[in-house]
Amino acid sequence: MSDTSADPGAGNGTDAGAAPGRQPVTPIQFLGQYIKDLSFEAPHTPNIFQELRETAPDIPIAIDVSVRELKESQYEVTLSVHVEATSGEKSVFILEVDYACVVKIGDIGDEHVRPILMIEVPRQMYPFVRQIIADLTVQGGFPPLMLQLVDFIDLYRQKYETDEDRAREAARRNALTGGAVAGQNL
Q: Which of 80, 48, 75 is nearest to 63 (CA)?
């Protein structure tokens, strides 16, 4: 015996809270991912290989995220990584990659769009960038460079939060906790 009072949306993949006849919209849709720019230089090869047997290189890494609106609710997010490995005064290798994706943002509040584009989208792109860099360094004759995980929330805060934002957040935490606790670093 079937229950005729059952929710008409149940079991057919639609959201019970969505309007009838309308599919729910995913907050983020990845429409495409691609390498926008890629560069690898090893100017002191093959001599640098001998030096690297004696000393480890210094490998500073710079990461940035940029966003460009393409049309309403569609954006290109670019994750840029610049690596310049050095040994003493010599450049071991220089690697630059701009990895981009096109995303469509669903129906979310305007205050959430920038954090999603600058935090969540790069977090989803980052494993691909790590793999590209590891493969490229191997193809360049070096051991694979395995990038550490990145805190995109911290990167976002460094880029966009002002001292006023940090003070407001500290005041909010103090109000929630009843004030700073001795020895607590806020």
A: 80
